[in-house]
Structures are given as C-alpha cells and as structure tokens.
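Example 3.2
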Amino acid sequence: MRINKYLAGCGVASRRKCEEYILQGRIAVNGNLVTELATEVNEHKDKVTMDGKLLSYENEAVYYMLNKPKGVISAANSRYGEKTVVDLIEDEENRIYPIGRLDKDTTGLIFLTNDGSLAYKLTHPRFEREKVYEAIIKGKIDIDDINKLKKGIMSEDEKLVASNVRLVKMIKGNSLVHITLREGKKRQVRRMCRAIGHPVVELKRISEGGIELGNLEEGQYRKLTRNEVRKLLTGK
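Structure, written as tokens:
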C-alpha cells in the first residue's frame, strides 16, 4: 500500500499530515529514509520507522469524540509540555490522533482516531462537512452583520464564508450565535467576528459532520457508535 496510507493506519496522523513527515525525511522503510510520496509498503513484511521508532500497523480502527476543555491543545504530542487532547483519552493500545484542530482557547467537539480515511473525509475541502460553532460575541449582531458573514469576509487575503448564521439569544448585552462553516481555515470564526466588530468572548464547537456534542461534559469523551462512524464516512 502507499506509504501515507500505511502511516495513517499506524495512527501517526492523517494522510496529508503523513505526507509532510515523509517529505521532511522522518520516515524510513527497512532502514532506508524515504522521501517519495509514491513509495509502496508491504504491511506484513516491511519495517517502517518514524524518527527511529518502529511503527505498528493498526488492523482495528477506533473512534472517539471528546469535549475539549480550554487550555488543551489539539495535537497528539506537545513540544512545550502542554496537555493534549490525546492525554485526556485512556487508550494505551492504539496510537490515536485528533482530526482537525480547535484553538487552545476554544472548547467543544473534536474527533480522535487511528483511521486515516476518516481523517481525510473530515478535513479535505472537497467533502464540505459542516461544523457548527456556538459563540458568544460582543454586542448585538444585526441582520446586516449576519449577511456580511454569509456573503464572505476578507481577512489576511482569504475570503471567509459562513454557510449559516443564527442569533439564538442575547446574554447581558452580548449575542449568542450559531455559526455553520463548510471550510476549516485557521481561527476562522474568531477572525470573521472580529472583522464585523463583534469579537468572540467564548467559542465552542457543538457539531461536526452531523454528529452533535450533546450533553458530553468538558474533558469527557466516549467512543462513536457504528452509525455515527458510518455517517461521518459517507456524509449520510
């Protein structure tokens, strides 16, 4: 199989992220560094290492959903000692990693898995999987503001678009809104709201790919059901 698929199956990261590791010269097959993305691997015979550590191909995929607390980073490892989303899940048998990212100061739904195919389906732009965020933003948002967000905001030479925006209620002079995205650009909700003069006070992802966070408390996690995994993989 293709080397990036093998690495994703080992729980290293998504296929796209694994391609970065290959190009960085961090992967070796049978003792030889490989930098060609088209490299083929025999999962039954070849010995593949990352940074000198032997990898093990995972035959069984696992899927978790976590309500990420503030101060936790969306990564499998931390260079500076911060707590990661992987640290919050008790799974010593599988090498799991988060799908996508949430800002350190953003809470809410994030999926973790060792299945590279699911990571690809949820992160590649062409699949346009919806993510819904609940935000408390400063001041009272009006219909003109909502239309601006839906039409698109230019920020740092990028056009940022919300597919839907809904004012839920007012809280002490601030607006509680639900913002739906079909793209996943860096700090997108915060950048969009700041651009229309209503910076974010609190931000939480409450849904992704049609799967709701529900009443899962911050810092808690659970395994996804078969039906939820199927919905994320197929979009139906």
